[in-house]
Design goal:
The complex is a heterodimer of chains A (230) and B (164). Chain A is of the alpha/beta class. Chain A has helices at residues 9-16, 30-33, 39-55, 74-77, 81-84, 96-105, 149-152, 179-190, and strands at residues 2-6, 21-27, 62-68, 89-93, 111-113, 115-125, 128-133, 169-170, 173-177. Chain A has eight helices and nine strands. The longest helix of chain A is centred in the N-terminal third of the chain and has 17 residues, at 39-55. Chain B has a single domain (2-163), classed as Rossmann fold (3-Layer(aba) Sandwich), CATH 3.40.50. The chains are: A alpha/beta (230), B alpha/beta (164).
């Protein structure tokens, strides 16, 4: 899932303080699961921002709250659309994709981010989320015993470990496990250590951060005659 | 007389049914003296508390919030009071970001036999809040009292619903 965390209340207050009516919009998908932008967090932030505004003499700013099922899909924004005309700004508690989807849907309304979108990750333990994937567009987990050296090695080494691996930990931070130690241990357990003898080829970054926004198109799912833009 | 009462800090105490609520009752039965500016909201366990309950109290204009649960290790639901303590810490962080003093909310632990301790807690918080001064969010005391009363009514309804 996409993992995010909330911006400081003061930062959000300063973004919206010059508006008169602001709608906080939560998202019921990833950011609800990572406890950053679901219905409960929207309620907490709403109360916090209203109080913060009042303390700087802007208590007359109306801050209302709502949460939709999914901000990153236009069809789910339909439920929100009738309300937006009553507000002169939106603060989204969705991920960066949610913020931009709302901005595209409501071109005349400023949309502010209430969260800092962090990474694609997992719930490691209750209240702790960890990055696992950078969305490189060319997955090579098969070569590395199912452990990603791009997201989990500080140097993103494809032929590791480096000299900074100490007792299974990374030299960057002793709290971080060395990804290459994990790769080695798992490959040994799976009986596929021989695969690590081959020199791993450089990554093809043309599928990653290169070349502008990426797109995935499933022609069979596109509406006939309208193409991918429909 | 009315003006003096208005100048006193208004405190909302979230009290666990199994300890602090009974301790408050005992303090009354023992005729102990403590400031009368505390309003008690009964929870089935402090583990029921959410950060937004605490923020709602401050939004209504209370000067301070007490969260009073069982002694650590003595929670009727095993770890509700430990969870409450972490939520109170979270609420303190948020109060700081909002621009209010984090000391306006505090977690306390006591047993149902601690009537005198309950009186001490209320006195301690009352003195602390008097030092901090009134909440800058309060507009008038009567609307704060009404807001707190409404919160208490809602909590009682939830507790009554759960015990049916």
């Amino acid at each position: 899932m996409i993992v995010a965390d909330r911006k400081n209340v003061r930062e959000i207050r300063d973004m919206i303080k010059d508006h008169d009516r602001v709608l906080l919009v939560g998202c019921g998908t990833c950011v609800t699961v990572c406890l950053a932008g679901g219905e409960r967090e929207v309620g907490i932030l709403g109360a916090a921002v209203r109080m913060a505004l009042k303390l700087i003499g802007r208590g007359n700013v109306v801050v209302d709250e709502c949460t939709i099922e999914r901000q990153c899909e236009d069809a789910f924004i339909d439920a929100l659309a009738p309300r937006v005309a009553d507000y002169d700004a939106i603060c989204s508690l969705g991920c960066g994709a949610g913020v931009q989807t709302l901005a595209e849907r409501f071109p005349d309304t400023p949309v502010y981010p209430g969260l800092n979108t962090q990474f694609i990750g997992i719930l490691e333990s209750q209240g702790v989320w960890t990055e696992k994937c950078v969305g490189c567009g060319s997955c090579r987990l098969d070569e590395f015993a199912g452990i990603c050296p791009i997201s989990r090695c500080a140097k993103r080494l494809f032929n590791g470990p480096c000299g900074g691996s100490r007792d299974g930990k990374c030299e960057v931070d002793p709290q971080i496990e060395c990804a290459w130690q994990l790769i080695y241990d798992r490959a040994r357990a799976l009986g596929i250590l021989d695969r690590l003898e081959a020199i791993a080829a450089p990554q093809d970054w043309s599928t990653g951060l290169d070349g502008g926004p990426r797109k995935v198109v499933r022609e069979d799912q596109c509406i006939a005659d309208l193409g991918p833009s429909a | 007389m009315t003006d003096d009462r208005d100048a006193q800090p208004l405190i909302l105490a979230f009290c666990c049914h199994y300890c602090a609520y009974a301790a408050a009752d005992l303090a009354g039965a023992m005729r102990l003296q403590y400031p009368d500016n505390v309003r008690i909201l009964r929870l089935p366990c402090t583990g029921k508390i959410e950060v937004n309950y605490i923020l709602a109290a401050f939004e209504h204009g209370v000067d301070g919030v007490i969260v009073a649960g069982c002694l650590e290790g003595g929670c009727h639901f095993l770890e509700g009071n430990l969870r409450a303590r972490r939520r109170v810490e979270r609420a303190k962080q948020l109060l700081d970001e909002i621009g209010l003093e984090p000391e306006r909310v505090e977690m306390f632990n006591l047993s149902s036999a601690d009537g005198p301790r309950f009186a001490e807690i209320v006195t301690e918080m009352s003195e602390r809040l008097a030092r901090l001064g009134p909440s800058p969010l309060r507009t008038d005391r009567s609307s704060t009292e009404e807001g707190v009363e409404e919160m208490t009514r809602q909590a009682d309804a939830v507790v009554a619903g759960e015990s049916e």
